[in-house]
Structure formats: structure tokens, C-alpha cells
Amino acid sequence: MGELLKEAKVMRQSHSFKSESFTIYGSLSQGVDLMEGILEECRKHNVTSGMVTSIGSLQKAGYVLFKSDNGRPNGYGNEITVDNPVELVNCTGFVCEDESGDLDLHLHGMVVEESGKISAGHFLKGMNPTLITVEFSISCGYDIHANRTFNENLGFRVIDFSK
């Protein structure tokens, strides 16, 4: 068991930072993509890292789920779409920069159809247009940097935070 813990520590260290912060509150209008709209608001306010929460409604939803091999995640599966209106009942994620320094958004959420069927996953950019409105908040740290890069040991892009 001790060797397994040592291996896990080599793969990726847990980390956290305390920061002074500010919060942006807003809403997206009809037809604006959930992820692209939030990223545009981040650009407008010069935000490069923060935590996003949102609720609202979408014309349709597009997301992926991780796939696994022998009980271990090994990438993302096929795109999943819900091609009818949904309520966005829970959505959270992180604003960060990618390997190229471009603004990125890692966003997960849960939607419910009119029938009550619930779906959830890792949202995809350009596939989640607003139906009526999406209200959001972005909690931003003045001095926190979030960088999302591919971690070979884990096989996924992950966010590392720094001051």
C-alpha cells in the first residue's frame, strides 16, 4: 500500500492556495453558447482563472463522459447530445489557460429534460446554446493562475493552480 501511495504522489501533488477574490455576475442571452459565452465574458473582464457556477436553460446539450478500461479512466467517449430543450440545473467548472496560453473552460453540468430524464457530463464548446437565459457567477482570484495541460501519468488534461 505504501508503494502505491508513493507512486500516486509522483504522479500529481494535491495543492491549494488562498487568494483575495472578486466575483462577476451575469447572464447569457438566447442563442449564445454556454461555454463560448462565459469565455467571452471572462475576456471582457480580463479574467484568466476562476470558478464558474451557472443555471438556466439550453436549446440542446452536448457533452462527453470518460470511458474506462479495467476500471481506470482512459479518455473520453463519444459525444452525447440531447437534441431538445433542457433545464441546466447544476453547472460548475474552472476558467484557465491551456498549453498555448489561450483561455479555456473545463465545465461539467447536469441537465434535465421535460420528461424528467437527467443527463450529465463534461460540456463541449459550441454545443450548448442558451434557450431563454443562463445566469452565471465567476469567482476570481487576483493572484491565482490556473493552467490546464496534459498529464501523461493520468492520461488527461488537468488544471494546476499557482500563485
Structure report:
- The protein is mainly beta and about 160 residues long.
- The chain has one domain (about 15-160): 60s Ribosomal Protein L30, Chain: A (2-Layer Sandwich).
- It is about 15% helix and about 55% strand.
- The protein has two helices and twelve strands, in the order αβαβββββββββββ.
- It has an eight-stranded antiparallel beta sheet, with helices on one face.
- β4 (about 65-70) and β5 (about 70-75) form a beta hairpin.
- The longest helix is centred in the N-terminal third of the chain and has 11 residues, at about 35-45.
- It is globular.
Explain briefly what this protein structure is.
The chain is mainly beta and 163 residues long. The protein has helices at 2-11, 34-44; strands spanning 21-28, 50-58, 61-64, 66-69, 72-76, 80-82, 86-97, 103-113, 118-123, 130-141, 145-151, 156-162. Residues 1-9 have low confidence and may be disordered.
